[in-house]
Amino acid sequence: VSRKLRLLIVEDESHLAAGLKLNFSLEDYEVDIAETGREAARLLASPTRYAAIILDVMLPDLDGFALCRRLRSAGNYTPVIMLTARDSSEDRVEGLEAGADDYLVKPFHLDELLARVRSQIRRADWDQRRGGPSSDHEVIRFGRAVIDMSTLEAQVAGQAVHLTRLEFDLIRYLAMNAGRVVSRKELLEKVWKLRNYPNTRTVDNFIARLRRHFEPEAAKPIHFVSVRGAGYKFVPDANDA
Ligand code: CA
Fold first, then answer.
1. What does residue 181 show for φ and ψ, rounded to 5 degrees?
2. How far apart are the CA of 51 and the centre of ligand 1, in A?
3. Is 35 within 8 Å of 79 (Cβ atoms)?
4. How many other CB atoms are found less than 10 A from the CB of residue 72?
5. What is the model's pLDDT at position 197?
6. pLDDT, tens digit, for every residue of 181-232?
7. Cα 96 to averaged position of ligand 1 atoms, centre (Å)
8. Distance from residue 125's CA to the centre of ligand 1 (Å)
9. What does the mean pLDDT of the chain come to?
10. How far is CA 46 from the centre of its chain?
11. 3-state secondary structure string, 64-123?
12. Exposure string (b/e) for 157-170, b if CB count within 10 Å is 16 or more?
């Protein structure tokens, strides 16, 4: 029985895809290659389980962002490491908003990609283990929401809610700092890992999404509260506001 981990490399530059396949095979991974977004979508819809996906942003048909969003909205949380030709914060943010776990700019060092893939697989594995019966669960509760950080499952009034990895990380960070005003800059640094990123609108977009999921009335937030000119304050119990 093969115990090898299987990777999917989505990359339309054949020579780069072949080089990556060779190097990952030498590291004892099984590797499938898709040269188009559609081919990737077909493989991802098959019963094959991938330990991680290396996803080029620029593809001839469906782009990497769209493919990643589609995957996440289908409830597939396989770690995704995105590759892009451009080193721009906008791309990084778009990748993370699409649900990618990590992001690497071309040209990159092979060692760095290997390390990132290993680290994402370890993290996914660790998340699964933490969800095991003997482990301690980290559960965040507020209002009618129950968010299990160890299994990455969220519910509102018993109904499952699908969140991206970044949305879980954002809730976790806010919950760790409950009752304290957290600035957009701090959130970009601590949750998005972006330093000196000028556009704080992305934080507002994510908070708006959390409100739609978790506030009794999205327009009158009682948990993800805006503090004018300062940032956001997470209030688990509305009576404490
Ligand atoms: Ca490409």
1. -80, 125
2. 22
3. no
4. 20
5. 79
6. 999 999 998 888 787 777 888 899 999 999 999 999 999 999 999 999 999 9
7. 18
8. 29
9. 87
10. 22
11. HHHHHHHHHHCCCCCCEEEEECCCCHHHHHHHHHCCCCEEEECCCCHHHHHHHHHHHHHH
12. eeeebebbbbbbbb
Compute the chain's Rg from CA coordinates.
19
Residues 101-155: tens digit of each pLDDT: 888 999 999 999 999 999 888 877 766 655 443 334 578 899 999 998 878 899 9
Closest CA to 9 of 29, 1, 27: 29
Please give the DSSP secondary-structure letter assigned to residue 145.
E
**10: exposed, middle or buried (Cβ count in 10 Å: 0-12, 13-18, 19+):** buried
- Rounded to the nearest whole angstrom, what is the distance from the C-alpha of residue 48 to the centroid of ligand 1? 24
Q: What are the φ/ψ torsions at residue 43 (nearest 5 degrees)?
A: -65, -35
CA of 171 to the centre of ligand 1 (A): 33
pTM above 0.85, yes or no: no
| Highest-confidence segment of 67-71, 95-99, 121-125, 179-183 | 179-183
**Reduced to 3 states, what is the DSSP secondary structure of residue 157?**
coil
- Quote the pLDDT of residue 133: 37
CA dist., res. 192 & res. 97, Å (int): 10
